[in-house]
Amino acid sequence: MYRKFLISEVVKRYNISRPTLIYYDNIDLLKPSHNETNGYRYYTYEDMDKLELILALKETGLSLKSIKSFMSDPSHEGSIDLLSTQKKKIDKKIKELQKLQIVLDKRINMISQYQNVKLYKGIKLDHYSEITICKQDLNYNDLTPYETASRKLKTALDQSPTSYGSIISKYGLCLGKNELFNQEFDHYRYVFNYLSHPIDDAETIEIPANYFVRCLHHGPYNTISETFKHLLNYITLNAYQIIGDAYIIPLIDLWATKSKNDFIREILIPVEI
Fold first, then answer.
1. Which of 59, 137, 174, 194 lies 20 to 30 angstroms, CA to CA, from 184?
2. In terms of DSSP bridges, do strands 241-242 and 131-137 run parallel, antiparallel, or are they unpaired?
3. What is the pLDDT of residues 88-147, one digit of tens each?
4. Contact status, residue 171 vs residue 153, Cβ threshold 8 Å
5. How much is the average pLDDT of 56-73?
6. Same domain for 128 and 146?
7. Are residues 162 and 216 in the same domain?
8. Strand runs (DSSP E) across 165-219, as ranges?
9. What is the CATH number of the domain that holds 242?
């Protein structure tokens, strides 16, 4: 006599739920070979083999519909085709997850860097080494120039594994030297992001090593003009000469606070002393 297993035994052996086995029975995926008059479901060793195959295919991510279709007409060729197709899907998913991992790692690192920035009061004069940035010009013919430029820059950056996963809200803004002199503080030249090294998919420039006058601006962008005026007055009083564009770098933004009044950005202006 063949050994017959109760549903409770199958549940325990394969760590599968009773409702799942009943569902497989209802959709004709795995029906017990024996269903005695007492109403109990019984499974044979052959049924267990089928269940192991179902569970193995399910682990690869196949749908029950695909599994049922395959089991209705199994073959070696069909097995290879089925698993090869599923492998391609899994490979694609792995690449997507690897990209997501890069994004998470970079964002954790970036936010940690900003979190560790030492805030200061007043105006400072410091020397910076050469900096590499990538940029996207703002086109004021666009309906939303900042948003459009930021999205274009992110698209370009995401083509490179080393720069993939940048955060748009962390992009800086450049105010041209002429706009600075003319006090056109709301007409920026481009958005930018720092790079560890130049990449082919985005326009990159080198900001020369120089002295920079810098200070922090607290609050939203629409109040930044007063901070610029304060910096320009300081530069004039100290007889410095502005020799390049100004840069605005976000330090504290919506990743750290929900109120724009608590945003903090750093303004840097290159000067000759």
1. 194
2. unpaired
3. 888 888 888 887 887 788 778 777 776 677 888 999 999 999 989 999 999 999 889 999
4. yes
5. 86
6. yes
7. yes
8. 172-175, 190-194, 203-207, 210-218
9. 3.20.80.10
